[in-house]
Amino acid sequence: SQTIHQWPATLVQPVGSPLSLECTVEGTSNPNLYWYRQAAGRGLQLLFYSVGIGQISSEVPQNLSASRPQDRQFILSSKKLLLSDSGFYLCAWSVLGRGYTFGSGTRLTVV
Amino acid sequence: KQEVTQIPAALSVPEGENLVLNCSFTDSAIYNLQWFRQDPGKGLTSLLLIQSSQREQTSGRLNASLDKSSGRSTLYIAASQPGDSATYLCAVREGGTGFQKLVFGTGTRLLVSP
């Protein structure tokens, strides 16, 4: 069966510290992978998507970056966190003809 | 630019009621439409996926319809239960060539009281 793992579940980081959130998918090959952010009281915003290894597209300019070192691994990073990076980060995957499947999310609080 | 709107923003009903959540989108050239449920502090759980060629999908007490030409979808929940309390999100996958983005509505927050 297809599953998606996202960790950590919660994270509290000081301003200026680095960030690394990881997402892995099981049970499918060559999925499209996505990072979304959900700020408090706001909708879901697409940050990055990837259609293959090493292929990353950014939807909005920001303090974050993404990488896809393996087919089913997607990493969200930052060198120096800002207060405005706080939010709920969701990883998702999809394949042609199927809907999106989301991970359980990471609650990031930058202090 | 595709825009997705959900009405109402919040809904409070007593247990047992049948209810309808509405979703509208501005560009009818969609690939599919997906309804999700989100519990507080949790990820999104997919409820129903309707392809652009379909009119409706059913799963248990849930029924989702799609009228692509008018840019509307409804999620019907029969015999609501307190466990149905959550935020319901509608999302359309854009059509056309190239990358097809999933565009979300702002959600309907549902509270079902015992």
Observed structural traits:
heterodimer, A: 111 residues, mainly beta, seven-stranded mixed sheet, four-stranded antiparallel sheet, 11 strands, B: 114 residues, six-stranded mixed sheet, five-stranded antiparallel sheet, 0% helix, 59% strand
Give a written overview of the molecule.
By secondary structure, chain A is mainly beta. In chain A, 0% of the residues lie in helices and 58% in strands. Chain A is built from no helices and eleven strands. Chain A has strands at residues 3-7, 10-13, 19-26, 32-38, 44-52, 55-58, 65-70, 73-78, 87-94, 101-102, 106-110. In chain A, strands 2, 4, 5, 6, 9, 10 and 11 form a seven-stranded mixed sheet that branches. Chain A has a four-stranded antiparallel sheet with strand order 1-3-8-7, with no helix packed on it. In chain A, a hairpin with a 6-residue loop joins strand 9 (87-94) and strand 10. Chain A is globular, with a radius of gyration of 13 Å. The N and C termini of chain A lie far apart (38 Å). Chain B is an all-beta fold. Chain B is 0% helix and 59% strand. Chain B has no helices and eleven strands. In chain B, the strands form two sheets. In chain B, strands 2, 4, 5, 9, 10 and 11 form a six-stranded mixed sheet that branches. The radius of gyration of chain B is 14 Å and the shape is globular. In chain B, 34% of the residues are buried.
